[in-house]
Amino acid sequence: MLKDFLDANGQSFSMAAEAASRMSSTAPTVQQVVSEHIETLTAASSGTRRTYRGQANIHIYPVLGAIPVDRLTRAEVARWFNGMTIAAKSKKNVHAILSAALKTAIADGLISENVALGMRAADEVSTFEPVFLSEAQMSIIYSALPQRWRLFVEFLENAGLRYGEATALRWQDVEQRDGRVALRVTRAWRRGDDGEYIGPPKTKRSRRTVTLPLLLGDALLGARGDAATGDLMFTRPSGLHLSNSYFHLSVWMPLMKEISGQLGAKPRIHDLRHTHASRLIARGVPLPVIQARLGHESITTTVNTYGHLAGDADSLAAAVLD
């Protein structure tokens, strides 16, 4: 019996002792702890929980899932963490799920230490670098874009809303402010277990009012026609929800394939929002104002994403002191 046990553990007494220790543990496994943590989160939407489940299934459970939570070591977590071949931001998000679950396990009296604390991914270049489109590049896009979608793309470029916010807008969200059209952003499409649904925007600061440029505001009102106040502003030709996947596959990807040689870039739909922010910075709009317009929860997000574009601001600061 002892020989068989040692053979199963590479003839190593230390490995055999560790295996025996795990076999004798009555604590729940890492998978059980993480799963319970995800399902009992009170501030997470159903879509967020589904995302967490998917990340745990792919990245946590295959490596650490079967280990009793009270036998999990920092070395094992470090090897798992370093072995994940995903972008630094994704690695950070997956690690946060495990660390939060272990924190819950401490509160439940299952363990005394969070062995996942203090681990950080090396800085890496994001898989998707923002693309800031010039006016000339936008002209190329508009010249090839079907007329049916021109106003929608102009809106994304010049309003700066997130895609899910823009496609959740209703005509009743329009108001007049000092001769301009303004939009109350109070809703966004979210993803849940049963598909997409309309809920609150991404963060508290995402609930905001966004004022439109004059020409865009006039074009939007001109397109309203006989629509009822509760109707969505932007839909598919059939009147159904203009989901990101539909627009991406039916409109954006074919368009990018057609003009990629002229454009010299491969922008995503979300890059229209980045382009909007870059235009504001180029015209001297302060970053806190841009933060409020984009609905960023923290100025740090705005600075980290767009701060490098504000090169002239430092020269202006120096000029003030001359």
Automatic annotation (TrEMBL):
Segments crossing the lipid bilayer: none
InterPro entries to which the protein is assigned, alphabetical: CB, DNA_brk_join_enz, Integrase-like_cat_sf, Integrase_catalytic, Integrase_recombinase_N, Tyrosine_recombinase_XerCD
Superkingdom per UniProt: Bacteria
Alphabetic keyword roster: DNA recombination, DNA-binding
Residues in Core-binding (CB) domain copies: 28-106
Domain Tyr recombinase intervals: 128-321
Xref: CDD domains: INT_ICEBs1_C_like
Keyword Thylakoid in annotation: no
Family per record: Belongs to the 'phage' integrase family.
PANTHER family assigned: PHAGE INTEGRASE-RELATED (PTHR30349), PROPHAGE INTEGRASE INTD-RELATED (PTHR30349:SF64)
Protein name per its UniProtKB record: Tyrosine-type recombinase/integrase
Organism: Rothia endophytica
